[in-house]
Design brief:
10 helices, 8 strands, 2 domains, Rossmann fold, 4-stranded parallel β-sheet, alpha/beta
Amino acid sequence: MPRLSLKRFAAVVAALAFVGCAHPLRQAQGDTAAQGDTAAQGKKIQVATTISTLNSFVQGVGGEHVVVKNIVPIGASPETFEPAPQDVATVADANVLVENGAGLESWLDRLLRDAGTPNLRIVVCAQGLPVKNLNPHLWMDPVLAKHYVGAIRDALVAADPADAQDYRRNAAAYDRRIDDLTASIRRQIATIPRSHRYMIVFHNAWQYYNDRFGIVTLGFVERNPGQEPNPQQIAQLVDLAKKHHVHGVFSEPEYSPKLLYSIAQGAGVKVVENLYDDSIGTDPRVANYIAMMQYDTGVIVATLK
């Protein structure tokens, strides 16, 4: 039988004891990183991400020097996610952890404590960015996504100074791809008549995207994770959809579209169930951040035109 490392053994013990309990918040963002090179010579940096959407940024910057594993499974919502014992081991094995921050991962403090990794470098991608209305979905604005790339670049440089030139070069190349993406989205949104640029969504993941590209978010069904609207709120959304001649109401595959169908039926519009934001998809068309954003834009434009 293979022998467990002390670190892995500790993680397994913590996983077996993974039960609900209160604990202090983790250290201030960015303060948990150890100084110097945390990547063992000749080995790839093990990076854990909280959501699969962040994998693209890590892979784009880290290239061949990193191995990336997301904690929240593809297709699951990070806002209602409950960590499992194996997630403790995932964090314990990591050199770097990349989270969104801005309140998205309410479960992460407990997970970090149970993993017991004081030298783990933590990248909080949204740190320093303007958060609107407590909305954590800043990566949906590709201009803000470049800040994520820079934060990941800096963490990998600190963890592996020997390959710093590669990380800086890769980050610059990925930034150029994001610039191209932003220009492409602008061109596509410009084809939508201004009077059609209104959206009603299941949950408010689209505020930053819409603000960047000139679409109005009229309303959203789920005000808080797991909290269904009351009949009065549904009626208000139906009235908004009628007033602004909304062409469709939008949701993601991980959510039930039942409530959206109530709105769509009342307003005489269609339901779009296949937008992606918190999670990439297994379909190659949405298998990474840039592909996901291109796909989502195509769906939005086709619906709102």
